[in-house]
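Re: that chain you flagged

S.,

Sorry for the slow reply, it's been a week of failed gels. I finally had a moment to sit down with the sequence you sent. For the record, here it is as I used it:
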Amino acid sequence: MAEINMTNIKDIILSTGNYNNVKCGNTVSITGDGGNAWEYYGPAYKKLAPRLKTYLNYANKYQELLKIKDKNEYKRFRKEIEDEYIKNYFETRLKELDADELLDTLYNRFGSNIILLCHEDITEFCHRRLVADYIELKTGIYIPEVSIEGSKVKKIQPIRYKNRLKEVGGECEILSW
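Prediction finished late last night. Pasting the structure tokens below so you have them in one place:
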């Protein structure tokens, strides 16, 4: 196993992106189906995929959200279902996740300059950004979001979840690196 340290952590996970915006590079899916529903058939690390129960609960409530016309009620309910998802994802995937072991595993399985992929657009709530922000909380290394068209790489400002993760996990518990 490779020795993971601060000098090479940032070389393991290069960025995050979605199946529509990233078509090349050292891509690794982190969805339950490995990206097949989005015609992605590359490498996958399904241990970072949300549990089906977490995903289905959110998906059902998201359908309810789309029916809400009142702007304030929409914002309130959206935050509520996102907070519930963050809590469930933290409890089932992130809480016991050792960042050093994760990075070591990813490096040994997929190499360096990994781009973690899932299907949500960058403007939507997304578990890949929960993973990225969790790793940043544990290591101090920021993982950007990208879009890649041909040889053109564009960094995109992602939605950030660090503060919401801290609320769920407790700052002392998360910031232990």
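What I noticed first: The longest strand covers residues 13-18.

Talk soon,
D.
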